[in-house]
Design brief:
Length: about 270
């Protein structure tokens, strides 16, 4: 097969409902203990052999073929992460296009952890998901590490390709989507049946919270939400504006090195 599917069951109770086991070549990791979403993600990625990684939570649905589109955009060396947040919406910030015709835009903000795509070498370069963070916001530190290492985040333009079913149909009753994510813990979504495991998971979340609290107010730390939100807004055009990038600010963390290649690809007449 041209792709592989790795399912990580981190002591959840929903795997029995998955019907992928008998239909595709699948690696299933059942650790019997909930180590949290960041650790589970890193373990699954380490077993992968592909150049590209498409990370999808269990409550997401692929609506259209999109693997080639993701790969086309990820071939841009300045793109660190692609997330579908905003797919299907009208985006009036500058568009970019590659030789295949796949259109995308560079964007700012936190993004969506339910679905994200990246190259394996990007994951290695930034050190993977931060395992000492609250499980429900594991995507946020990864995005901040992306900015810090000089990469950009991209959104695919055009029709919606992947959707978060729980978020859209059940009013986020079980979703981990949130501004800070600090109150969204993986064990709360898939609670342990064993009391000892519930206690152990709770202790782990408390440890991670202390780590986040220590880092929160350090400039350019992975937990400083305000710093990175302000930085990403300064470097990229805001929604509704067709302004140029702030390359002066982009020198701060290395984005400036992509200036020439990005400006060659921009479409000005959208």
């Amino acid at each position: 097969m041209p792709f592989e599917i790795i399912v990580h069951d981190d002591h959840g109770e929903a795997l029995e409902s998955l019907d992928v086991k008998d239909k595709v070549s699948t690696i299933i990791l059942n650790m019997g203990l909930n180590f949290g979403l960041p650790t589970a993600s890193n373990r699954a990625i380490r077993l992968s052999t592909s150049k590209y990684i498409l990370f999808i939570n269990q409550d997401c649905e692929m609506m259209l073929p999109c693997l080639r589109d993701y790969a086309n955009v990820l071939d841009k060396p300045y793109v660190g992460i692609i997330s579908p947040w905003g797919d299907g919406d009208v985006i009036t910030s500058p568009d970019y296009i590659n030789a295949s015709g796949t259109k995308f835009t560079l964007t700012y903000g936190i993004g969506a952890g339910c679905v994200m795509a990246f190259r394996r070498d990007f994951w290695e370069n930034v050190g993977g998901f931060e395992e000492d963070t609250i499980s429900g916001c594991s995507d946020t530190p990864l995005l901040y590490k992306m900015w810090r290492e000089g990469y950009f985040r991209a959104l695919l333009l055009g029709p919606k390709r992947i959707r978060n079913v729980d978020y859209e149909e059940h009013k986020s009753s079980h979703s981990t989507i949130g501004r800070t994510g600090t109150d969204c813990c993986y064990p709360k979504i898939f609670p342990h049946t064993d009391q000892a495991l519930r206690i152990q998971s709770k202790k782990r979340e408390q440890f991670c919270q202390r780590h986040v609290d220590r880092e929160r107010y350090e400039p350019a730390s992975i937990s400083n939400v305000d710093y990175w939100h302000e930085y990403s807004q300064k470097i990229l055009p805001q929604s509704g504006m067709l302004s140029s990038m702030n390359w002066k600010n982009g020198k701060k963390h290395g984005q400036f090195k992509w200036k020439e290649s990005i400006e060659k690809e921009i479409i000005h007449n959208i």
